[in-house]
Specification:
Elements: E1 3-7, H1 15-26, E2 32-36, H2 39-48, E3 55-56, E4 59-60, H3 64-88, E5 93-97, E6 104-108, E7 117-122, H4 124-132, E8 136-140, E9 142-143, E10 153-154, H5 157-168, E11 172-176, E12 183-184, E13 187-188, E14 191-193, H6 197-202, H7 209-222, E15 228-231, E16 243-246
Parallel strand pairs: 1-2, 1-11, 2-8, 5-8, 11-15, 14-16
Antiparallel strand pairs: 3-4, 6-7, 9-10, 12-13, 15-16
Length: about 250
Amino acid sequence: MLTVIKLGGNELDRPGWLDAWAAGIARARGPVVVVHGGGRAISDLSARLGLPVEQLDGLRVTTPAVAAAVEMALGGPVNRRVVAALRRAGVDALGLSGVDGGLLTAEPLDRGLGHVGRVVAVRSALLESLLLAGLTPVVAPMAPDPSGDGPPLNVNADDAAAAVAGALGAAELLLVSDVAAVRIGSADRATINVAEVPALVAAGSVTGGMVTKIRAAAAAIAAGTGAVRIGGLEMLESPAAGTRIVTAAVRAA
């Protein structure tokens, strides 16, 4: 059964955490596609270049100059770091971006975010051919600029992972970070029904990057992904770990 795993970018500077994650992937049963973030690396590079670091609704405001920094960070050292960790763990990983082979097609978002895109198509046959060859694709989330003149569109990694999982009909999508579960109020939630997502966001019960995660989880379910969980490394070992996003047909615990 195919699993798509999104790796949060804030954990990439923690070698022990990254190696533990890679070891978990090595023990996984069945094929895996990895999509990684890299927010901290992009922010650090932007700061060094004197570029603004801004977010709106959990998404990075991306000028053309910031988009170039996204391409440099995600498609370069960040992708290589993830691939290297997997290969050290014995996983035959191959790095690529959403631009390579036209893997991702995106349309610009018109929400004051600038050079940010929403995935509208995934060349799933390319990923399937790599999986059939025994490789583990590691995808940097960016997509070609539709105009052909500018740097790639910046695509949120959670959204990209959801699109990939839906296109491949993945059995499960895991949104992995250093947060054990989705916390509502003072308690971690074992399940969240997709019907709850708009109200949770509107009420401010989830904020920042978690808004993007639960929206992406709901989108993945709607696109045909079998199951989605949000949580930490424990999800790689335990099917009960993390917060499971469920449909209205499934009774929430």
